[in-house]
Design goal:
Elements: E1 7-10, E2 15-18, E3 22-23, H1 36-48, E4 53-55, H2 64-73, E5 81-86, E6 88-90, E7 96-99, H3 103-117, E8 122-127, H4 136-148, E9 152-158, H5 162-171, E10 176-180, H6 192-198, E11 202-206, H7 238-258, H8 262-271, E12 277-279, H9 286-293, H10 302-311
Parallel strand pairs: 3-4, 4-5, 5-8, 8-9, 9-10, 10-11, 11-12
Antiparallel strand pairs: 1-2, 6-7
Helix pairs in contact: 1-2, 1-9, 3-4, 4-5, 7-8
Length: 330
C-alpha cells in the first residue's frame, strides 16, 4: 500500500504541489509507442496516489499531449495542479519552427493551450525555452497579463540562466524554474540552485531518472524503440554509454542493500536535495508510476548520501544532455 504523496511549496506566491509530479511528455511522443488508454489510466492512478502535479507542453505530440491530459482530467479538474509550457514552436507535422517569446505569441499560445486542455485556467505556465530575440522582460510582461486576466495562476521558466531568471523575476514573481536535474545531471548546483533559492523560487526537476537510465532497463541503444529520441542522445552512444553504465552500478548496489529499486533510490536522492525541489519523473505506465511513488518513503542516511556524492560528482556523466545544447541555460 503506497501512502498518499505529501505536498511541497513552489515559490512564495501560494503554489502548492505534490512532492512528486508526473511528466506526461512520453505519453504522446519521444519515448516510443504511445497507448492513450494506459496513459489516461496512469494519470488517474497518479491522482489516486496523491500525485496531483501534472506536467505537459504544447510542443509534445505536437499538441496532442495537452489534449490527452485534458481528456484525462476533464471530470476531475479540481484535483489537479496543471502545468504547461510555450515557446518551442512546432508545425502540425512535428517540424521544429524555432523558439518564440514574443508577447503576441505568448497570448496566442496560451489561448490554444487552454482550448486543448479544456480548462479556463492554467495553474503554472512556463516559458519552455528562452527566446534570445525577445527580451525576457517583454515575454514575462505578456505572461503577467495572463495572470491578471485569470488565464494563468503562476509563472515559470524552463532551462533559463541565472541572469535571465533575475531579470524575469524583477518583472513578475517567478514561482518555479524547471530544469533537468538528477544524479548524473547536477549542472544546476553551482549557480542555478543558489540563484532560485536566493529569490525564493521553487525548482522543478525534470528527467530525475536520467531519461530512464536509472531504471536499470537500458544497457544498449538497441534497447530503445526506433522512434525513441534517446537513440540519438549523446549519453546513450556507445563509448559514453559504457562509462555511464559503470556509474549506475553504484546506484544498483546501494539500492539492492536497501531493498529498493535503482529508480526509487535515484528519486529519493533528488527529493533529499531540499523541500523546494519537486521531481517530475515521466512515465506512461501505471506499474512504473507506482514504483516512482514509493520513492517518497525512501530515506537516505548521511553515509548513503556521501556514498552517492563520491560516485556522482558534478559533471561526471559522459556526453552532453542533448545533441544540440544551444537552447538550454540561456
Amino acid at each position: 500500500m503506497v501512502e498518499p504523496v505529501e505536498t511541497r511549496r513552489l515559490g512564495q506566491q501560494g503554489l502548492e504541489v505534490s512532492a512528486l509530479g508526473l511528466g506526461c511528455m512520453g505519453m504522446s511522443e519521444f519515448y516510443g509507442t504511445a497507448d492513450e488508454g494506459e496513459a489516461i489510466a496512469t494519470i488517474h492512478r497518479a491522482l489516486e496516489l496523491g500525485i496531483t502535479f501534472l506536467d505537459t507542453a504544447d510542443m509534445y505530440g505536437p499538441f496532442t499531449n495537452e489534449q490527452l491530459v485534458g481528456k484525462a482530467i476533464a471530470d476531475r479538474r479540481d484535483q489537479v495542479v496543471l502545468a504547461t509550457k510555450f515557446g518551442n514552436m512546432r508545425g502540425e507535422q512535428g517540424e521544429w519552427l524555432g523558439i518564440n517569446g514574443s508577447p503576441e505569441y505568448v497570448r496566442s499560445a496560451c489561448e490554444a493551450s487552454l482550448k486543448r486542455l479544456g480548462v479556463e485556467t492554467i495553474d503554472l505556465y512556463y516559458q519552455h525555452r528562452v527566446d534570445l530575440e525577445t527580451p525576457i522582460e517583454e515575454t514575462v510582461g505578456a505572461m503577467a497579463e495572463l495572470v491578471q486576466e485569470g488565464k494563468v495562476r503562476f509563472l515559470g521558466l524552463s532551462e533559463a540562466a541565472a541572469a535571465t531568471i533575475r531579470r524575469a523575476h524583477a518583472i513578475h514573481p517567478i514561482s518555479a524554474l524547471q530544469t533537468e536535474y538528477s544524479l548524473w545531471t547536477r549542472d544546476p548546483e553551482p549557480e542555478i540552485l543558489p540563484t532560485v533559492r536566493e529569490l525564493e523560487i521553487g525548482f522543478v526537476a525534470y528527467s530525475p531518472l536520467g531519461r530512464g537510465f536509472f531504471s536499470g532497463r537500458f544497457r544498449s541503444v538497441d534497447d530503445f524503440e526506433e522512434t525513441d529520441f534517446r537513440r540519438r542522445g549523446p549519453r546513450f552512444q556507445e563509448e559514453n554509454l559504457r562509462q555511464n553504465l559503470a556509474l549506475v552500478e553504484e546506484v544498483e548496489a546501494l539500492a539492492a542493500e536497501k531493498d529498493v529499486t535503482p529508480a526509487q533510490l535515484a528519486l529519493a536522492w533528488v527529493l533529499s536535495r531540499g523541500d523546494d525541489i519537486v521531481p517530475i519523473p515521466g512515465t506512461k505506465r501505471r506499474s512504473f508510476l507506482e514504483e516512482n511513488a514509493a520513492a517518497v518513503e525512501v530515506e537516505l542516511t548521511g553515509e548513503e548520501l556521501e556514498r552517492l556524492e563520491r560516485a556522482f560528482p558534478v559533471g561526471v556523466a559522459a556526453g552532453d544532455r542533448y545533441p544540440d545544447m544551444s537552447t538550454v541555460n540561456r
